[in-house]
Amino acid sequence: MTRPEFLHACCEVLGAMHVLTAPEDMAPYLTDWRGRFTGSAAAVLRPADTLQVAAVVALCAEAKVPLVPQGGNTGLVLGSVPDLAGNAVVLSLKRMNRIRAIDLVNNTITVEAGSILEEVQNAASKADRLFPLSLAAEGSCTIGGNLATNAGGTAVLRYGSMRDLCLGLEVVTADGKVWDGLRGLRKDNTGYDLRNLFIGAEGTLGIITAAVLKLFPQPKAQVTALAGLNTPQDALRLLAMAQATCAAGLTGFELMSACSVALVARHFPQMRTGFQDAHAQYVLLEISDSESEAHATAMLEAVVEEAMEGAVLCDAVVASSIAQSRALWSLREHITLAQAAEGKHVKHDVSVPISSIAEFIGQTDALLQQAFPGCRMVTFGHLGDGNLHYNVSAPEAMADEAFIQHQEAINLIVHDSAVRFGGSISAEHGLGMLKRDEIRRYKSDVEMELMTAIKKALDPHQLMNPGKVL
Ligand SMILES: Cc1cc2nc3c(=O)[nH]c(=O)nc-3n(C[C@H](O)[C@H](O)[C@H](O)COP(=O)(O)OP(=O)(O)OC[C@H]3O[C@@H](n4cnc5c(N)ncnc54)[C@H](O)[C@@H]3O)c2cc1C
Questions:
Q1: Which of 80, 361, 394, 461 is the most exposed place for a label (fewest CB within 10 A)?
Q2: Which of 76, 125, 116 is nearest to 98 (CA)?
Q3: Closest by alpha carbon to 10, among 39, 38, 52?
Q4: Are 258 and 275 in contact (CB under 8 A)?
Q5: Is a pLDDT exceeding 90 seen at residue 109?
Q6: Over 90: is that where the pLDDT of 274 sits?
Q7: Coil, helix or strand at residue 380
Q8: What would the mean pLDDT of 181-208 be, rounded to a whole number?
């Protein structure tokens, strides 16, 4: 099949207005979220339902056209944009945004892959339920992208990541067949776990078209506190205390280094910790409670009191209103923006066992200071999940551009260190094109062989998001 014949056949399936080929129409689909890379494509295809996805994937298989699935295009590792070859099509799932069903007894919601995360949260909320996945891109990212990257976010500590929130999938396979695995079962031991193969595969094994997701009761109250501490070790002690007192009620435990908070204060002067003195580390704690706000506040105050008495904390404030709670979260959410405003920097998204996190920070900070004296450690993230956004900014006296030249050396120090502690070089964001080559340094030959065998079995012609992950 020639390219014009292929495109003509796509138009017959989707309607010509959903086969974009003009450069200005395709442009928004070709550049990644951070604007670092612009790929090239033969067309952007916009199917409206699963049968249309199956039909165009079958056409791609017949014509040997590679395809790149795309949701909200908010991914951070260049997974959702095509490479420079120009022979691939982008398959945008965004028109597939229907809520198919809500089952309030089974506590599940069945949604199409192009549904925006925030809309799914709202649909759950209207039904007096909680869909707990929450991340800063929730107004743009889609459930299909969340699943394909096994997204985490701010509530993993209590509810797990996307893999833990999904009970069933509908997937179009690389040869254009539909696998209906939309089971709302919490128990199903009937052979290999296909669902979990597609989750986190970044679109390299098949196209996710719909999913059955778990819902939870809405908490009656959410209360937040901010604590100032001396060391990451103290933050771990505070975590143990909060878990002992609040158990599953602890839904957020975020670490922020002094440098992260200082950057927010510099670029967003209206945002303050409210503390008189600066501290070396800060922790944001959130408790969700099924009883009442008074009960949640009492629990959080008990944790703070115990930590003060044990000299684990230097200072703390428990939010007394929703507005104050939002202001505290806002500090955390503005770190990325403040760091971007400050200039170019080197980002990492690592995880290590929670027990090793303080030692990891101590050793890695020391290695970086030795190599790049004065570099600024903008370390923050989901301490309760062992996941840190371990970002490094240039020393005040060094130009960003000169610092960025050392990106590879910095990555090597940070990633080698994470792996030495039994960690991962990508906790949340996946591999995409960005970390595809680097991962070979850290995975064993056996692991790479197993991954390659799975890819060959499910996508023998290497058409599903080629050049990503593997
Ligand atoms: C401001 C911001 C904050 C973020 N915060 C977090 C965070 O806290 N935690 C976290 O885990 N991530 C975070 N991310 C990254 C995160 O991966 C994405 O926001 C989101 O999960 C991706 O969804 P998307 O619809 O935009 O997917 P896209 O970016 O479109 O795609 C991501 C990957 O999934 C594949 N894909 C997309 N849809 C499908 C489908 N239907 N079937 C198969 N493959 C598909 C793509 O090919 C690509 O490989 C953040 C990103 C931004 C910009």
A1: 461
A2: 116
A3: 52
A4: no
A5: yes
A6: no
A7: strand
A8: 97
- Residue 309: strand, helix, or coil: helix
The span from the CA of 138 to the CA of 134, in Å, is 6
Query: Is the C-beta atom of 115 inside 6 A of ligand 1?
Result: no
Q: If you measure from the C-alpha of residue 188 to the centroid of ligand 1, how many angstroms do you get, rounded to a whole number? A: 27
Q: How far apart are CA 68 and CA 424, in angstroms?
A: 25
pTM listed for this prediction: 0.95
Q: Is the CB of 381 under 6 A from ligand 1?
A: no
Atom 16 in ligand 1: residue holding the nearest Cα:
75
Q: Please indicate whether residue 428, judged by its CB atom, sits closer than 6 Å to ligand 1.
A: yes
- Provide, for the chain, the percentages of residues in helix, strand and coil under a 3-state DSSP scheme, each rounded to the nearest 5: 40, 20, 40
Task: Read off the pLDDT of each residue in 205-227 and give the average, rounded to a whole number.
Answer: 96
Closest ligand 1 atom, residue 468 Cα: 49
From the list 72, 148, 388, 91, the residue with the least C-alpha distance to 253 is 388
User: pLDDT band at residue 5, thresholds of 50, 70 and 90?
Assistant: very high
**Quick one: tokens of 254?**
């975020």
Distance (angstroms) between ligand 1 centre and the Cα of 76 equals 7
Q: Mean pLDDT, the chain, as a whole number?
A: 96
